[in-house]
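Standup notes
- HV: blocked on the assembly model, inputs below
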Amino acid sequence: MNLPSEQITINLGPQHPSTHGVFRLRVTLDGEVITDVEPIFGYLHRGTEKLAEERTYTQIVTLTDRLDYTSSMINNQAYVLAVEKLAGVTVPPRGQYLRVLTAELQRIASHLMGVGFFLQDLGASGTPLMYCFRERERILDLFEMLCGARVTVSYMRPGGVFQEPPPEFWPAVRHLLDTTPDAIAELERLISENEIVLARSKGVGVLTKEKAIDCAISGPNLRASGVAWDLRKADPYDVYADMDFAVPVGSNGDSYDRFLVRVMEVHQSIRIAEQCYRDMPGGPVRSELPFFFRPPPGDAYAHVEASKGELGFYLVSDGGIAPYRCKIRSPSFINLTVLAEMLLGWKVADLMVIFGSLDVNMGEVDR
Amino acid sequence: MPYGLGIAKGMMVTLRNLVRKPVTVQYPEQRVAQHHRFRGEDFVWYEERCTGCASCAKYCPQGIIKIVTAPSGEMTQEGEKYKLEVFDIEIARCMFCGLCVEACPYDALHMGSGFERARPRQSDLVISVDELKASAKKPSTWFRPQLQDRGYDPFQPGDDVSWQDAGREKSVAPTYEEMLQRWVQGR
């Protein structure tokens, strides 16, 4: 007997536990198979770009913490690089090294969170996420030591970093760099060969190389598709040109590769942090700039390899104390454009796996 | 992979974690140690140092510091000091970036180390000038490394930091020779 059936439209979110923030997916299903996806966002819109127009260049640093709240240091770095380009400020070497060190520590923290939530979305409720969070906590403790805050750091300033780290910071970094590889290896042993993880994520949500390039995907999601594109290598900023590290690349572009690329990038970040620790030069951490400085009229664009992809700040100055325009190119927002394509034809249980593997942060999408 | 090996590996992990020390703490009873650079509330304000210049209010990205001053007739080396009638910090909107502390040219305002200020009403979340005057002088060492160099720890019970002790690492005020160079010989 052939029963008549019709498609059903359901809303996932805006407060669904696995939507990584306030995000809604309107999914049309044929039985269990996804036939149409409409991402709806904007619930977290705070008007950062507009707020930046009425704040001074130093005050905007505090706004950038709140873009991708899992990688505040890298957001700070992208913004101050744009301001330095605009104002023609040079940064002392110690300031640059400290920036790279903290940015790489932040990348480890952010990738751990991405990996943890991906495993959470696979249904491993709690345990792997807590393993990741345990390591992330130790990095956040270092940030508290460095700048007094754990998440909304505001550590960097145009012209360098805010302040010299306290003396106890260096042994703490040494300890972290010594112990983190073991902890990551423990996670890898648990997860990488787990049959359930393999069955749920291998071959699921394939993003082809061509599609990824066409949709301007960046970051680990692009590298998982097999494109060795990393701004730290392609357009080095701060002292990345002196650093020796590899760019991990996936082969299939499926959810498992995206997970694996993140884990491998953590190892590379530890390598970079290790080099920063070894080569840390002395001297000042910040070149003196007045609080209310006026860059000459003009515009500047600076981009960094953030934990989610290419994060860019485009600043236009009219010679005043605040930028005339501040445009943010956020990687999560652009990585989200490909979501609908990746989800079509998959079952609703795979939706969370694919979405989780993209590692999207809503604070950055809505800005 | 032979059947059951995954379960055996999993049980090994369980066994290892059974003898490990827990990472989590039971919050209200147990606490994680805070670093003394922690940027928190309980702002520490030194009346003797403050001249009422309102730099903190001007530098605040949120614009939550309200200052009303009146002439006090009290002279300081920079001229006349103003008496503060209102110094309201609307802490409900504060994001603890610390720019007000960084801005203060006289080192009168310092961050504190607290974080437990939940209140039923938003109107209770305003720190008034009387509260600032009465608060314990236990500044955070954020942006004040000389306090840390001295071995001061805000979490240890002991004497409060007096206004003479709370200052900057090195004086930012120009010396007499610099003033002479800038205003007399340089012209």
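- HV (later): unblocked. The mean pLDDT of chain A is 87. The beta strands of chain A are 8-12, 24-30, 33-40, 156-157, 160-161, 298-305, 310-317, 325-329.
- Next: hand off to the docking folks.
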